[in-house]
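Q: Got a minute? One more chain.
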Amino acid sequence: MRGHPRGGEAGGGQVSDTPSPRGAAVGRRIGIGLMYGLWKPRVLGAWKVPATGPVILAVNHSHNIDGPMLMGTAPRPVHFLIKKEAFVGPLGTFLEGIGQVKVDRNGTDRTAVTGALGVLSAGGVLGIFPEGTRGEGDFASLRSGLAYFAVRSGAPVVPVAVLGSNDHRGRLIKGLPPLRGRVDIVFGEAFQAGDLSGRRTRQALDLATVRIQDRLTTHLKEARRLTGR
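A: Always. Here it is, folded:
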């Protein structure tokens, strides 16, 4: 999503098309099987994710398997915002079945906004790649969607660093990290992105984006220090 969605575009209450919590729970079990069956995850700081209530996981994105990896290592089921291009054929049906949120990145997607806010209003976990697309995974360029959801919902943001998923050494299958290779998933301290005033003006969202970027880049540096990545 680009730009700041306006406050009247989607309600904060749970709606009928809110992604399925039960589906996300199934997705988590599948993710656990894949993650621990194919790789050697080292999970640090998972206890920092609030055990109940709405939470936003802000994840760096350097590999297309980062989402499933986090689904299999996060302490709670996660509903990810995923680009609509991935929802094709059987894969699209599967993603919808496990409670993921389809989003059109070329504009303000009201359906995605409603679904994401529905997840949070129901006390669920929303996963976002704030960089918008795969890149260096260094949080250098953030889109405004994360700030909007954090300020609009009041949900705390937990920074997450996925390290090692883009390691090219020893890779046997193109597009996947080395099988049985170590991947580090580091969760940071939860924080409030907004100033607690409840304002959703462009200035308030811009300030929240700056605050988020500072916290995420700081967490990533600390995660790299801890893991030696």
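A: The beta strands are 40-44, 55-59, 79-83, 101-103, 125-128, 157-163, 182-187.
Q: Perfect, thanks.
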